[in-house]
């Protein structure tokens, strides 16, 4: 069973009489382990395998930011994220993590590093591999860890 933990913070507020007062605030955080963050990537990769853009889009937060590898256009709504994956998933992508650094905070977690994406040209069946960099930022939203931000780019050096 998962157990939430609390983080205390201190805020300075201006009181009605013009003085400054300290006010303590306790925030309940949702715990997640590095293994669970790794599993979020596995879920993403499995969603790609379905070739269903709606399945992939469902992994994103309500207000996502996708900076995709094969498009110059940032995607900042679920409809725009879905539109990107409508086209990208035709290439039967599959990814493997080559290097990874995971950081965990109260309601966010990040997984950044390098990956290799395998693609299949739908017209010819030719397979290729693309080396890239990625940044997944996850946010705990409505009881689930969602992709808040995903940036992927090609490696600049051969």
UniProtKB/TrEMBL annotation:
Residues 1-21 form the signal peptide. InterPro entries: Ca/CaM-dep_prot_kinase-assoc, NTF2-like_dom_sf, Steroid_delta5-4_isomerase. Residues 34-156 form the Calcium/calmodulin-dependent protein kinase II association-domain domain. SUPFAM superfamilies: NTF2-like. The keyword Calcium does not apply. It comes from the Bacteria. This is SgcJ/EcaC family oxidoreductase. It comes from Rhizobium helianthi.
């Amino acid at each position: 069973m998962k157990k939430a933990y609390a983080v205390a913070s201190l805020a300075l507020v201006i009181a009605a009489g013009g003085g400054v007062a300290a006010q303590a605030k306790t925030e309940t955080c949702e715990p997640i382990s590095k293994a669970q963050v790794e599993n979020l990537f596995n879920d993403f990769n499995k969603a790609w395998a379905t070739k269903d853009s709606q399945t992939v889009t469902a992994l994103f937060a309500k207000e996502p930011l996708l900076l995709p590898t094969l498009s110059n256009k940032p995607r900042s709504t679920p409809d725009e994220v879905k539109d990107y994956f409508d086209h990208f998933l035709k290439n039967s992508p599959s990814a493997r993590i080559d290097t990874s650094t995971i950081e965990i905070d109260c309601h966010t977690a990040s997984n950044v590093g390098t990956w290799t994406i395998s693609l299949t040209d739908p017209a010819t069946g030719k397979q290729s591999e693309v080396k890239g960099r990625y940044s997944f930022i996850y946010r705990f939203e409505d009881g689930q860890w969602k992709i808040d931000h995903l940036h992927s780019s090609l490696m600049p050096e051969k």
